[in-house]
Amino acid sequence: MWPRSVLEQGSCRPSSNAGWIHGARWCFSARETNPATLQIKQGRIAQIRKGAAAPRRTNQADRDLDLAGMLILPGLINAHDHLQFALYPRLGGAHYQDYVEWGKDIQQRHATTIAQQHRLPKSVRLWWGALRNLVCGVTTVSHHDAQSPEFERIDFPVRVLQRFGWAHSIALGGDLRRAWLATPRGGPFIVHACEGVSKEASDELLALDRQGLLDSSTVLVHGLALDDERLAVLQARQASLILCPSSNEYLFGRLPANRLFYQGEKVALGSDSPLTSAGDLLDEVRFAMLRCAVPAERAYAMVTDTPRSILRLENGEGSIQVGGVADLIGIRDTGSDILDRLGTLSSDDVELVMLGGCVQLASDELYRRLPMVSTRGLESLRIGGSIRWLRAPVAEMVRSAEAVMGFGKLLLGGRPIELP
User: What is d(CA 241, CA 219) in angstroms, rounded to the nearest whole number?
Assistant: First the structure.
């Protein structure tokens, strides 16, 4: 994509010098919110001092952030996405029996749209996928596709799961056993399964089991066709499940059974891609709460604690803890706690995102409060009705995409985007 030497001039490397964040309330768990002051050092949370007092000023005060009036949450974990499809609209024409039928239909029905999207280099599309996640507070994402060198760049906007095995599906995934055996030791093996309402979709769980591909490392995406018998097999094998309910409703006219949301530490939420989903991960959380009657505490866990466990993340992602990565998001503090607000949050509410202690996103208002060292490398983008400052080559990304899609025609997760 863009040369490293150009982009990394604006990258924000973790500093060995300590910076402090003060003035905010912090969501340490779904039910624990307190004022605190945090010290960040080398990209991790070095200290947590509960209480509202600001730290004693030091010669590193230019790195401190005063976030008075903000509620700080851990960066969210998106357990399922396809980053290269971020600029797509929803595709499809009716309700389908399964993902195979849908795939065949859109290849014919939307051939022109697909060809146009593919004229944009995949590396550029992956960056747009990262920004789609960043703007809604996602700092770690599981990209269900082949790895890209872009993900290893110091300037890539979000963390992308690296240590895992994957296959697309039984119908489209090739040699699943080879893919399963190639999974790094201790990593998850992720595969679409039971995506649809057909007999073939329903039979996929038992087919995986017959091949010996179901165990505690296996992560199934969708699981819409799981009945009680198949769910019992899933539980017996201690496999995990990632749900994408808005995609299921759009493609198949059916929501996941409510019991699927109650698999304890074994179920997480994914946004899926804009090809089929209702929007971004916060839209998916809201959809799950409103349409699937998922309680706020369960929904919050499905984008923090449980995906951290399922995806075998080991650096404190999805939490605020000493020693963990300083991946944080900020929303305006209304005095209410996160469980009271989760069902109404959207990307418009996300005013700050930090990755490893570096500011990756700021609202227009918050940008003016940041120390100069935190604003270097940020570029502005209008998303819907909001302006966000992003640590990405936004102007060049827009020009590249508009050269293919047309001026004023860009959608990011279904929302219009343009340079201010």
Answer: 6
